[in-house]
Amino acid sequence: MRDLRLPPLANSFVVQAARLFYQCFSSSGNDVSSPSLASPPRPVVDNDIPYERYSDAVEQLRPLFPPNCISFGADEVEVVGDIPLGAGGYANIWVATLCGRSVIRKSYRRYENDDVESIFQRYCREVTVCSQLSHPNIVPFVGFVITSNHSFSLIFDTAGHLGLREYLEMHPQADKMDLVRGIACGLKHVHDLDVIHGRLCSQNVLVGPDGIPRIAGFGSSLMMSRPDLGSDEDVVGFHRGSAPELMRPPKPGKPVTRITKESDMYAFGMLTWEIFSGKDPFRGDLDATVVVRVLKGDRPPHPKNCNGLSRQVWNMVKVCWSDSPSRRMTVGEVLNLLDAACRPS
Predict the structure, then answer these.
(1) pLDDT tens digits along 244-253
(2) Distance (Å, whole) CA 167 – CA 209
(3) Name one Pfam family in it (predicted).
């Protein structure tokens, strides 16, 4: 397996580099993209910022991103239309064009009173994670854009894809086992690289025109080899597939529970249920009610009138839902079970 361990960076260095970057650009509102990390910095054109200051900032930022990352100028990735395709907790999703082809641009939102350094730290983490992942069941990461007006974007080659739920509504006869297995394959790649997704749910799975599911939404992910790129406020966030240990308030003097591979597997079990049922987990309940029910041990029932959900797979889902993280299946064990379930008897 590839060794993705990078030189450790102190969290203070991330903040220091971010501050230097913003000091260089704070006087300008023009778009100036970060030069390619694989090539020398390019001079700034039509800008009052001295080239030397810009070059120094880029050199400070260079170690934050893997060398295989590609940066694009803001004018190279043109947004199509005035309305975003979608919006998440911290970013808007836009259809854009790059070199004549359609791509997706994920642009971080920033408001007047936001802590730009915290946003930049989250951005560093997502770019770093996405650049390490390469698998047929992971959204293809193309590159990134940083502009002088504190705008951060990631570029993905996922144009023409549909959200998982939208795909199932448009293709009710789709092979659900294929979708579940594809997601498991992508998650195994993620876990094999010691990355934790942190927010695996139907909103973060896209399905291409080829019917292949691809995992997206790595903004809350955690690289186990790069704890400097994570923070407690980013690693815990409620969604209907959140594991019970993430819902419990920390005991006095104890740290906040962090996401783990085991919490990913709980979310995988919930996602599998959602694929076969076609419904939101605990539909009709308020989030606070869901927390109470999950902590009491409640889980969604076996989907009614569901074709293709074998007893083996249903038992797998229930094991993934175990209250104890240590009792949950690993993604490798899940794939072995799915392969056996699909094997002709």
Answers:
(1) 999 888 788 8
(2) 9
(3) PK_Tyr_Ser-Thr
